[in-house]
Amino acid sequence: MFATFMPKPAQGDWRNGAHINWSVQALDRPGENLFEADGDWSELALQAVAGVIRHGVAITAVNCSTVNSYKGLIGRAREFEGGTVTWAPTHIVHGRNNRSAMLRLPQPRFAIENRAVDMYVNPYLALALTSAASLRGMTEELDAPPPVEKSLYDIETRDKDEGTAQPLPRTLSEAIDGFEADALAKEVFGPTLHGLFVRHKRDEWDRYHEWVSDWEVREYLRFL
Length: 224
Description:
Blueprint: E1 20-22, E2 25-26, E3 29-33, E4 36-37, E5 40-41, H1 43-54, H2 56-63, E6 76-77, E7 84-85, E8 91-95, E9 101-104, E10 112-114, H3 123-139, H4 157-161, H5 172-181, H6 183-210, H7 214-220
Parallel strand pairs: 8-9
Antiparallel strand pairs: 1-10, 2-3, 4-5, 6-7, 9-10
């Protein structure tokens, strides 16, 4: 018997999750949650949401940092009868109680929840970029898009094309493309760490991409 942090170690089973929940306090008012105002989410909270959504692809590259991570970020599991929903996030949006959204705003604890995180996450890198994106949203007073409360698992393709609900990266390669291009990620991690992360993860993707898997052998080796 051994412990593993692999995001999805078995076919036909759920992914693991390590959701990040965070709120903000004022330095001169300890104990006061700045994400709550009169029993509802504050304007600062929604600005923080907007910042995280703006940098959502780069944040996902850090929070879901392996090839295997993206096997779990799917709406329906084909291996289960009827395509059972996974309750995993699939889109870079927020909602009050929408488990298909990357960000959830549950009440009454008033801590933003990022659901697109798995157990392979480096918490220091994740919290650094999440905090920076939140603060950038607040300092620039960004406007959060409207919350999405419907299930995104069956969203139509045209909705994605119109940009109303940006999908999470489907692969590690997509996520690293976004991380590499993200100016805030470069600022937070600095050129050395940012460059090392990109090179390391590109090497991981290339090694995976070149590997002939058992699935490919079963699918294509014999066709008669």
